[in-house]
Amino acid sequence: MQLEVNGSSAFVATAGKELSRRQPSIVFIHGAGMDHSVWALQSRYFANRGYNVLAVDLPAHGRSGGEALTSIAAMADWIMALLDAAGIEQATLIGHSMGSLVALDAAVRHKDRVTRIGLLGTAADMPVNQAMLDAAAEDRQEAIDMVTGFGFGPAGHVGGSRGPGLWMMGGGQRLMQTVIARSPGILYHDLKACNEFRDGAAHAGAVTQPSFLVLGALDKMTPARAGKKLAQALQHVPGGADVTVLDGVGHMMMVEAPDPTLDAIIAGVMG
User: Fold this and answer.
1) Spans of all domains in the chain
2) Exposure winner among 2, 37, 110, 156, fewest CB in 10 A?
3) Across the chain, where does the E strand assignment appear?
């Protein structure tokens, strides 16, 4: 579905379903250098169970136009403008990596619009190695190699896909190559936004909505210990913050372990 947001075209994947104001809504927010396609399984599941699903392409990602947004706050504000364009008053926000920071920021600064947050592959702070930033600033393949190399767990490095002959990490590399080819510099802007975000700890203390976290036990980009620390800061929310740690899984959990990741999201949203 194409919408107009802040004067530019924005793409949201709805799993082929029409949006209805009578249904609860979930917004899925991708990570740095990615697009809506990382949520393929999860978005289809909820769209077929009575939810409006909006798996977004952030500006200058995937099929969305517009200029790259250079801060987490700007991305959170854009998500609210997207909801306006879609005619949706409130939604659950589920974000991965950079997208989790967007969900966290929106939950605090747009409390009346966000009913619940799900944070996957997350931490209060996401510092980025300077070498990775430098490579991303020049759109070098080295940046993609570092993101995917650190991002995928061991299984993803040696195949990992259920389909015979498919290489999980190679698929991630091709996705990022495609996104960067359409929008040069986009990975740099995303990584820089993560690196400069400093409000995670303070925001965690200000969240009032039900919250859940899904962490990869082998995550090298946002280690599980950092996610657990964020979860502790969220324990004041209604019902406490539920935490699921996926064994043998790295940062790219939706691809590495789609079914366990979906199960954790189902528990967080519907449990």
Assistant:
1) 2-127+196-270
2) 2
3) 2-5, 8-13, 25-29, 52-56, 91-96, 114-120, 211-216, 242-246
